[in-house]
Write a structure and sequence with these properties.
CATH superfamily: Cupredoxins -  blue copper proteins
Structural class: mainly beta
Mean pLDDT: 77
Radius of gyration: 19 Å
Shape: globular
Largest sheet: 4 strands, mixed
Distance between the termini: 73 Å
CATH topology: Immunoglobulin-like
Low-confidence stretches: 7-39, 155-168
CATH class: Mainly Beta
Number of strands: 12
């Protein structure tokens, strides 16, 4: 009887260890806190289709680096303030050409493998602003800026904010 209880406990333990969630799921995300610690939580908004979720960050200041990989953006979700003006450095660390496309803000920047590009934009006052790669959206290469008033589902993009002076 004792051997049988030990066998059942081992089977239960192995089943629990082998059934973890994938980090590519659109249902969970790795979030990097200010301390550099990574936690798993639900994404701040839900996008239509597959999302290769590589984490959520909160915009601090007016600069952001987004890494393009095959086939994801890191971070995938960016929490930002209303009307934030951002200089985004795009780094394509993948083997394929990618784009950073935001229909609502008329942004469509191509980035070759191993190259970087910069996009300057102003976010609207609220809602969700979806971005994606034109070539790989169907493979889950998409993400979003999450602004005050986001309902938790997307893409819900809003009208572009007026462009500030200085070429943004």
């Amino acid at each position: 009887m004792r051997k049988m209880l030990i066998a059942v406990a081992i089977v239960a333990l192995v089943g629990t260890v082998g059934c973890g969630k994938s980090k590519k799921s659109s249902n969970s995300t790795a979030t990097t806190a200010a301390s550099g610690a990574t936690t798993t939580e639900a994404p701040p908004v839900t996008l239509e289709g597959t999302v290769n979720n590589k984490g959520t960050t909160t915009l601090s200041g007016g600069a952001l680096t987004v890494t393009q990989q095959d086939f994801s953006f890191s971070p995938t979700f960016v929490k930002a303030g209303a009307g934030a003006t951002i200089a985004i450095t795009l780094k394509n660390e993948g083997k394929n050409q990618h784009t950073f496309t935001i229909d609502a803000l008329s942004v469509d920047q191509e980035v070759q493998p191993g190259q970087t590009a910069t996009v300057n934009l102003r976010l609207p006052a609220g809602g969700t602003v979806a971005f994606y790669c034109r070539f790989h959206k169907g493979s889950g290469m998409q993400g979003a800026f999450v602004l005050p008033g986001s309902s938790g589902s997307g893409p819900g993009t809003t009208q572009p904010a007026p462009s500030p002076q200085g070429g943004y």
